[in-house]
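Notebook B, p. 112. Complex prediction, attempt 2.
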Amino acid sequence: NAGVTQTPKFQVLKTGQSMTLQCAQDMNHEYMSWYRQDPGMGLRLIHYSVGAGITDQGEVPNGYNVSRSTTEDFPLRLLSAAPSQTSVYFCASSPLIPGSHNSPLHFGNGTRLTVT
Amino acid sequence: GENVEQHPSTLSVQEGDSAVIKCTYSDSASNYFPWYKQELGKRPQLIIDIRSNVGEKKDQRIAVTLNKTAKHFSLHITETQPEDSAVYFCAAWGFMIKAAGNKLTFGGGTRVLVKP
């Protein structure tokens, strides 16, 4: 199993550009989520999904869209990049709905995004 | 929503001493509390977790305690070694009323430095 795969590893955008961060998992996990981590800071939840076709907002959803058309993929779209979105983005998945079966979150290796 | 506070933000200990990190949470419905370790430039990785029906759990030099009444939980690292130097995050699963699911909320992190 590859686990949770994020692409790209690095990305530089200009203000106003849009792009999609890709996240795929091959573990048949129902739960997937996106976090951002600013330098020296904690992890803040952007969006999450408990299964195909179901998504919900986290703490900091503004400026980002997600969709979950398959169990495996959970892309994160930046609609119009801003310097405040410069951060490291982590995708994470879990085999079951967290809380009901207490399954640990598996993280991808992250995407380092810089918006100039 | 759930709010997780973590203290201290930085912790410097001498090799061989113990390190203690404390977290409090706000949502009394939370029932799962994982701890993650993040080394520089790497993704967070689960090191230990505890469920709400357990008061303490140990794994070699690491232990976690939970006080549901007071809504706080702690990570204890004994006989610290230089390789324990990292950022540690606590987290809590916060339940939401709507069926979309619930989400994992992280504390702000503790940077631990073990001095040889």
